[in-house]
Specification:
It contains 9 helices and 13 strands. It has helices at residues 71-78, 99-108, 126-134, 153-162, 181-184, 206-223, 231-236, 245-251, 289-297; strands at residues 4-10, 13-18, 23-27, 42-46, 85-89, 112-118, 140-144, 167-172, 189-192, 227-229, 260-264, 269-271, 282-283. Helix 1 runs parallel beside helix 2. The protein starts with a strand and ends with a helix.
């Protein structure tokens, strides 16, 4: 049963978070049609460019030479955050030497932190993941499935047992084909759009995306529950076309930059999402999240 674990006011809205991961946003005045947020309700925060996995599609160009963000910068900026949750990513997020300190800081501030990990790093970081779950330092984890042929189901089950509803499988449109279906069956999945930047630039697998457009509803819908999409996947897979306007109005969380924000603490910029062009990457002229969000709204 879902329980409300945090509610706050943000501009013209009341925002509630629930223990099973859902977020409900209600207008304070239902008659006001142009309501605005004062700060983001959720943020993606990049804390490292280090990774030894070498994925050919990595949008962050992460390598073994990649840098970590400064922990003091993280604390200074996050201390101004009035929202509910942040998704901490990289790179290999768990490789950051100050990650535990960052998560402890988020918990102290009442911020729910989610992390991502590649399936190839899952065993390496297993003890760390279980420790974070046991100490309630991490709300959830996304496991990037990039090769179903080497998927370790037993390891996945051990981690998912440690945190009910706290584990989501991430798959990328364009990489996802029918070889994934057996490994995905019965799991909560997030389909991410293929980011045509970084090492993946110019390699976008249009054929697989077109195939998935037809198959995700007819096959994945009955194998996985629930299925979530990021906004890029919504666009690439024409997800909106599958719903009537009333249904879409109930499930769509809004465009990138509307109550959300991307923050790169390694290279020192922010924007509506991780895939904005160079001219849309805004420098950190302030270390206050609310001020940065308002700057973003003027773009």
């Amino acid at each position: 049963m879902e329980q409300n674990i945090k509610t706050y006011l943000n501009g013209d809205f009341e925002v509630s978070f629930f223990n099973l991961g859902s977020r409900v946003i209600k207008p304070i005045n239902p008659d006001k049609k142009d309501g605005k947020f004062e700060f983001p309700n959720a943020m993606d925060v990049c804390i490292t460019r280090y990774c030894d996995n070498g994925c050919s599609f990595c949008y962050n160009n992460s390598t073994i030479s990649g840098k970590h963000c400064d922990v003091n910068l993280f604390k200074e900026i996050i201390s101004t955050y009035k929202g509910g949750e942040i998704a901490i990513g990289g790179g290999d997020t768990f490789s950051h030497p100050n990650l535990t300190e960052m998560l402890e800081f988020c918990k102290e501030k009442g911020i729910f932190a989610s992390l991502t990990v590649n399936q190839n790093h899952l065993r390496k970081h297993k003890d760390q993941i279980l420790d974070y779950f046991s100490k309630d330092l991490m709300k959830s984890i996304g496991i990037s499935m990039t090769d179903p042929s080497t998927w370790d189901e037993e390891l996945y089950q051990e981690i998912s047992q440690a945190k009910k509803q706290g584990v989501t499988i991430h798959v990328i449109a364009g990489l996802l084909d029918d070889s994934y279906f057996k490994a995905l069956t019965g799991k909560k999945i997030l389909i991410l759009g293929y980011k045509n930047i970084g090492r993946g630039e110019g390699k976008i697998p249009t054929g697989y995306i077109e195939w998935l457009k037809e198959e995700w509803l007819t096959i994945l819908r009955y194998k996985c529950n629930p299925i979530i999409f990021d906004n890029l996947a919504v666009d690439q897979l024409s997800v909106k076309e599958r719903f009537n306007p009333e249904e879409w109005g109930m499930i769509y969380q809004g465009d990138d930059g509307n109550g959300t924000m991307y923050l790169d603490l390694v290279e020192g910029w922010f924007g509506k999402s991780s895939i904005v062009g160079n001219d849309e990457k805004l420098p950190l002229t302030s270390k206050n999240i609310g001020e940065l969000y308002q700057i973003l709204q003027q773009q």
